[in-house]
TrEMBL record:
It comes from the Bacteria. This is Type I-E CRISPR-associated protein Cse2/CasB. Pfam families: CRISPR_Cse2. Transmembrane segments: none annotated. NCBIfam families: casB_cse2. Coiled coil: none annotated.
Amino acid sequence: MTDTLEPAVRKRPRHSREPEALGRHVASVVDDLQRRYLRQAPAAIAALAQLRQAVNAEPGTAGLDAVWLPDALIEPELRSERAEHPRATPSEQALHTAVTLFAIHQQSQREQRMHTPGTTFAVACQWLAAVRDNDETVHRRFAAVGTAATYPELVYHVRNMVTQLRAAKIGFDYGVFADDLRLFQRGPALVSGLTGADHVRALWGREYWRASAGPARPAATDPDASDASDTADPSTSQE
């Protein structure tokens, strides 16, 4: 079995979710970066390179994402705490993680859109298993994502999956992904006692295994990227 891509399919995937306010903001940010990167705009190439270097840094230290989160999207209950302490809120952390991982995902992809609205992270992982000869390896890596006990552990395992998805040219919806990252960081609910992480694990697990019974995946071809050249970046360090 090969990693050959099928022709692009324009209809919305079966297993899709709409982003919330944070997700819509993240989607607009990465969509703008993606379009400019595919056209080889020097500023976008430099921005993605800087974001890749900041993937393990604290939110705001990249010098780029600190200005991307409007105050209206920051959790109201954390406003006073944010004013007194420098630590990132769940929304700020989710924004930073999503945008920096997108920068890794889109790296060197000249004709493919790695931000693909309508395809969730879990469904993209299942499509990865479908194009790999050894799908058990993908299953194990996805299971590691599902057993992450802390947010840093989750990001570590997701980053490993993102590099595999990049190699297979499979994208996903970074807006919905950011919403999921935000939810993962929430504490237990008063009624159910379940944490946000519990909800995300269950949601991703359902999407992953349900997608295995679905049709072949649509490709993430960018119809707006026809003007993008296959030449190398001006700087190899910013590829």
